[in-house]
Amino acid sequence: MTSTFGGLNTARTALWAAQRGLDLTGQNVANVNTEGYSRQRVDLQAVGGTAVPALHSVSSPVGGGVDAGRVTRIRDVFLEQRAHTEISRTAELTVAAEALGGVEAALREPGDTGLQSMLADVWTGFSEVANNPTEPAARGLVLERLDILAGGLHTARATLDQQWTQTRDDLQALVADVNATATSIGELNTAIGAASRAGLPVNELADRRDLLVVSLAERVGATVRPAADGMVDVLVGGSTLVSGGATLGLQLAGADTPDGVGTGDDPRVRTDPGGTTIAIGGTAGGQLAALTDTIPGYRGRLDQMARDLVGRLNAVQAAGYDATGASGADQPLLDDGSGTVPVDPATVHAGNITVRVSDPALLAVAASSPAAVGGQPSADGDNADAFFRLSLAPDGVDAGYRQLVVALGVESAVASRDLEVQTVISTQVDAARESVSGVNLDEEMTTMLSFQHAYGAAARMVTAIDEAIDTLITRTGLVGR
């Protein structure tokens, strides 16, 4: 009798295990489109027989059925760590490519609205003045084109400054968001730890936490390491951002204008409290690189171009004579907008370069002091030709600007190619991770059918045992009556 009723218990555990499997399969299917959800699996373990028989027991039990009390999240810790690394790298390269694209947009090269086209118009204007030095319209056209060039430099400089400011504002917002995310991870850690100690399920809580960790990996290059009671520690740049339920904040410090870069107070991310500067990756790492290197670098080269332009044009202007016979040294062609004489090239940059000469007659296009004949200027235009020859100098403004544009194009192309390669790598890692932890409907369908058949078989087993017991109870003792 004991063995027969023991079979009912075995069948009961089989029914429970099959029902548990079906429930989990339904949970997986229901969350097939839930971001961050990891598929779950019931761990089935056979319940063995009594290892030490009871007193006077001579039976040989075959086991107690199946235990289906444990549910496991399907995760590959190595793929998760690899995914964090690749996500961080992809985000950093994305920002780098976007920053270079912003610089290209500021310079507008190649194109009719770029600085190269404006420079070419200026040199063409000087060439026309050299051919017609007494023509006021030609002189006026040169000054107009110089003013357009100065305006183009102003626009490019202002665009770069705006890009820098916007990038810093974005980084400031990102840091605040990272702090909020870290706090949420700490709260989930606390909940997971308490639930784990109480023996309660934590799979869904862990999914939410891991999704936040991926977000931190993308934004600041965070990595994780396991801790006690199902909790994790989150590290950024070697500093522990989250430890259990405790969190460490981040703070953006340093210059808040592009002019402050290079003065020893570059933008940086540091711990709060503590004030320790940390090396970060991800989106924040790319933004910091743009703030401290990419944008200031090209901004500085643009300023140097403006200084070279002022210095070279003013030098040629000073070597010639205007239509009144006065030396061009008394009237610089370009300055920094301050109106001082002599012009200090060190104070000039692309944002303040100004055409100082407004009267076409003051353009020093003559190589020697002309003698006014009948009130008309001399036909000497040799100095105008000297202006034009500035465009041909191998180390001139044009050559320097072309080198800047070429360097920008190469750097941008390399960044784009690196991003393409990294995107492929990241996609492959994500696919491998998804193949392990993601929900596959075909696989779940197979699992559902397997548990469905197991449930039916267990139910049939109960029916068979019920029939056996019925026979034993209703027919025992009837023979011989």
From TrEMBL:
Single Gene Ontology BP annotation: bacterial-type flagellum assembly
Stored SUPFAM superfamilies: Phase 1 flagellin
InterPro entries documented for this protein: Flag_bb_rod_N (IPR001444), Flg_bb/hook_C_dom (IPR010930), FlgK (IPR002371), FlgK_helical (IPR053927)
Organism domain of life: Bacteria
Domain named Flagellar basal-body/hook protein C-terminal: residues: 436-474
MF terms (GO), sorted A to Z: structural molecule activity
Domain Flagellar basal body rod protein N-terminal: 8-37
Chain ranges of the Flagellar hook-associated protein FlgK helical domain: 103-330
A GO term from the CC aspect: extracellular region
Record localization: Bacterial flagellum; Secreted
Pfam family, one: FlgK_D1
Alphabetic keyword roster: Bacterial flagellum, Cell projection, Cilium, Flagellum, Secreted
Family recorded in the similarity comment: Belongs to the flagella basal body rod proteins family.
Protein name as annotated: Flagellar hook-associated protein 1
